[in-house]
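ENTRY TYPE: paired fold submission
RECORD: A
CONTENT: sequence, then structure tokens
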Amino acid sequence: MKPNSILLIDDEQVILASLGHSLKEKGYHVDTAENSRVAFEKISQKNYSVVITDLRIPERDGLEMVNEMKAKCPETYFLVLTGHATLDSAIKAIRIGVADFMLKPCDDSQVINRVGLCLEQLERKWTVEKQTKDLEDINEKLKKEILLKNEIENQLRISRQELLVHNEALQKLSIIDPLTGVFNRRYLNETFAKEIKRAGREKSEIGFLIIDIDYFKLYNDTNGHQAGDECLKQVANALDVHINRPTDFVARYGGEEFCVVLPGTSLQGSLQVAEALRKSIEDLKLEHTSSKVKNTLTISIGVSCGIPQFPFVYKDMIASADKALYLAKENGRNRVEIGVYP
């Protein structure tokens, strides 16, 4: 629909020519029709902004024609320009939605003014419709962006959770011995160093055990490395089961050696734990025919315990326990010995 398109319907050629010329001079695009048949042909081919019509139209009642045209063109403004008006026809025209009702003779400038008012209303209506459509488009776009934002945030939450789980798994893998499932040498070094410093600051005792499987090389030579790995798993599990306090832990030191850290534990307590661990391995009754101690698997344990002295070096306690372990081996194995510390 052109915003300045007008259909002028009248059976008087003088009106069509005169008013049509005046409207064209104002820049409007004007089509004319001298009867209802031509008018319907025109309106079926083009959408008009304004239709100006007389009430007396050949072949058709003017108001009936307007009513039918309005049903086909609901956005078009209809103006009645007639010399045969009655109060009844004016009321009917208003009821069917005619925008204005003018009486002939009427100055062209008045008609042009009414047409301008209709077009201004139509323009405002289009502006509102366009703004409404723009707002709806913006609202729809915002909804999509919010949905996308929520989806991205949800994916980020999932990714963060997966990353945390992955990092936790990696962290666990980095501190767990893959064969035995107890803590590894890295965890032992890092955590033991912290516990030594804490015990030194707090002036509290700490116990440390080094455990060695007696004649493990002979066990491997006799039973094979696969059986040796299974033996290490059973020993590690038996040790770990007997370490109950949250602060205590078992770690694989390397090969067939394991360590136990016992924060806040006295020498007597450390010896009790060591003896319980020694007995737990003996109670496994794992066959070890190559052992020079007895025909089942046994362990030797070196114990070190005390209050760390500045500069709180954890390796000093390891060295003390290691000497005690050597002594246990020298004294026949399957036993617990105490090292000097500090």
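RECORD: B
CONTENT: sequence, then structure tokens
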Amino acid sequence: MDDAKKYIYGVINLNNGDNFQPIKAGWGNQELYAISHQDIACVVSDSPGLNLEIMEKEELGRYLVNHQSAIEEVMKTHTIIPIKFGTEVENKLEVGQILERGYSKFKDRLKNFDGKIELDVTAVWSDLNKIIKVMGEEDKEIRDFKEKIARKPPGETLQDRIKIGVMIKTALEKKNEETQNQIIDCLKEKAIDFQKHKIMDDRMILTCAFLLDRDKESEFDEALNELDKRHDGLINFKCVGPLPPYSFTTMEVKKVGFRQLNEAGNLLDLGEEVTADDIKDSYRKKTLDCHPDKDPDDPVLAERFEEITRAYKMLTSFCRGEKCSFKSDDVKDFFLIEAMKI
């Protein structure tokens, strides 16, 4: 139904007589279909009206898997630019507004990521205790300190044992970083780009997404197999994919109204009627005082810079002509479309 809420999975090309056949996937195996604008389309389903903000973590995880499974099903026949998990709009008309406003961004990304895939690689130590033991034997500083502790009465070694724990952790972090760099250096030769993700524990050496041409997948697999042989069971490697380029071009769609626009304008000290040049000039002046290069170690400065930059992007997205008004009567809700930072 056109007036039903729509859940958006991603954006695809629909040109040269291309067609998208509806498929069963996503929320509750609902039908996925395309809503088009010119030669691009959003892949959507009617929204089940879920409130993700109050959903339990386990249930949220199941819906995320459904979301990704649907996108990966579409990927079998189309290049797809993923849209952030949980994105829904009021109706078909709003889907069209998103495609119209983001048309150039979507077309650029569809062109840049055509024929590209993502492979996600994790590497963990098979036996962390064995690695720590070997480090303790090979590292002279740790070995000497252990011998020093062994000569002391047990009741006098608490602080020393704490110190040796810190020394081992530091040595392990160094070894993990060196091993991670070696793995990436080997695999990045077969890839176009890579994106490191957060390490979850000491066993984990690497979790990284690699972007590559689809026809290079077998070469990448060979390089990964060679790494596996080289480490002779010390490291467990896992590769997931091929996937859509989640880590490189997932898009976020936000509905923006007068309140958000007014806050952004106030942040840049703008009046109710401005030109595009006014916005640029104010942004330059504001960022001179809070650019991270002034003090790279100041998190407050970096946060202020990010806040002003977000306001600037919102205002320039709204003000698409020579002049624009931020008066409440002149502001209509619009969609802000940006690439996510993963």
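NOTES ON RECORD B: The radius of gyration is 26 Å. The longest strand covers residues 116-125.
STATUS: closed
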